[in-house]
Amino acid sequence: MATLIEQLVTKMGLIDEPNILEKATELVRLLELRSTNVPLQINEYGKIVLCGDIAATLLGIAFDKEQALKLSGLRKSHYTNHKRMIEKLLDLNKLVGVNDICIQLNVQEVKKKADELLELYRKVIASEQTDVDDTHPQYASMAVFMACKLCQKKISKTKIMPFSNLRPTQWQHLEQRWEKLIAKHYKNTMDNKLKVDDNEEINDENKENGTMKGKGDGKGKERRVEIEDYEKWKKRMLEMAQAKLREEEAKRNESEIAKGANNEINENADMAILGC
Predict the structure, then answer these.
(1) Strand intervals (E) in 101-247
(2) Which stretches of the chain score pLDDT less than 50?
(3) Is 49 helix (H, G, I), strand (E, B) or coil?
(4) Can you give the pLDDT at residue 159?
(5) pLDDT for 225
(6) Helix or strand (DSSP H, E) at 25
(7) Which residues, in sequence order, are CB contacts of 144 under 8 Å at separation 6+?
(8) What is the rounded end-to-end Cα distance, in angstroms, of the chain?
(9) Three-state DSSP string of 62-82
């Protein structure tokens, strides 16, 4: 049995993942004990592959679901149903969340967007006072699916639907409701966010351009520091320089006139002394 488990885990591409072989072996042995009175209509290959699938989910490890399906020898619907049954037998039927789905589908880049959509859905439901169990995996699954669409990340419905525990018709109805919700509420949310971002950007620009809040006036009024136009400043500087030059030239002329007068007085004095 241990050899078969190792072989199948290897074929699933999980053998190099830490703790996966031990976890899968543990689940297979536990399943044997708990399924004594609940015979499962699947062979050993199917049991081991499903336990490997569950072990990978518990450890947060992504793997090739299509390869696992081929190895199990089961049809897709049987694979999904038996997996749920085994999870119940092993008391592992925990609620799957956005993070779990993103890891399993290898779309971690849309996790933030999916969390936003799921939170938006919860707020809308709360405002409508609708009694809905928003912890059901269908909502986390749909949030990830819609996040992929918004982020233009290609993902197949057939890969994400098993996480939702919904039939195709139920999924279709849920998808239509979410499309309406996003069209009505998500756009408004993003518009408001953009307005806030724009206001913050304008405030930052105002601060850079000299707009400051008046301090100590108690009213929070803005006090604008006027920034002089370059051409005006240039003209003003030239006028000041020219005025200074004229002032210096006038002083120099006065000095020369005074010097000339002094020279004339001195010459007259010398002539008087000589008796001329």
Answers:
(1) 211-213, 222-224
(2) 191-198, 201-202, 211-225, 276
(3) helix
(4) 84
(5) 42
(6) helix 20-34
(7) 98, 101, 102, 105, 107, 110, 111, 114, 160
(8) 146
(9) CCCHHHHHHHHCCCHHHHHHH
Are 124 and 185 in contact by the 8 Å Cβ rule? The answer is yes
pTM to 2 decimal places: 0.48
Residues 6+ apart with CB under 8 A from 50: 42, 72, 79, 82, 83, 86
Containing H/E element for 211? strand 211-213
Length of the chain: 276
3-state secondary structure of 264: helix
CB-based contact 21:5 (threshold 8 Å): yes
**Scanning the structure block, which residue is given the tokens 């859905």?**
121
CA–CA separation, 120 vs 180, rounded Å? 13
Q: Which two tokens stand for residue 207?
A: 């601060």
The answer to whether 9 and 15 have CB atoms below 8 angstroms apart is yes
**CB 170, CB 162: distance < 8 Å:** no
What's the rounded Cα separation, in Å, for the pair 163 and 209? Answer: 53
- Of 5, 73, 181, nearest in space to 82 by CA: 73
Model confidence over 110-162: pLDDT tens digits? 999 999 999 999 888 888 767 777 778 899 999 999 999 999 999 888 889 88
Q: Hunting for tokens 């136009």 — which residue is that?
A: 229
Query: Taking a C-beta distance cutoff of 8 angstroms, is the pair 45, 67 a contact?
Result: no
Q: How far apart are CA 191 and CA 211, in angstroms?
A: 26
**What's at 7, amino acid-wise?**
Q
| Residue-wise burial string across 187-219, b where 16 or more C-beta atoms lie within 10 A, e elsewhere | eeeeeeeeeeeeeeeeeeeeeeeeeeeeeeeee
Task: Output the six-digit token pair for 94.
Answer: 């925990």
Sole residue written with tokens 């301090």: 215
Contact between 54 and 77 under an 8 Å Cβ cutoff? The reply is no
Coil, strand or helix: which one is 34? Answer: helix
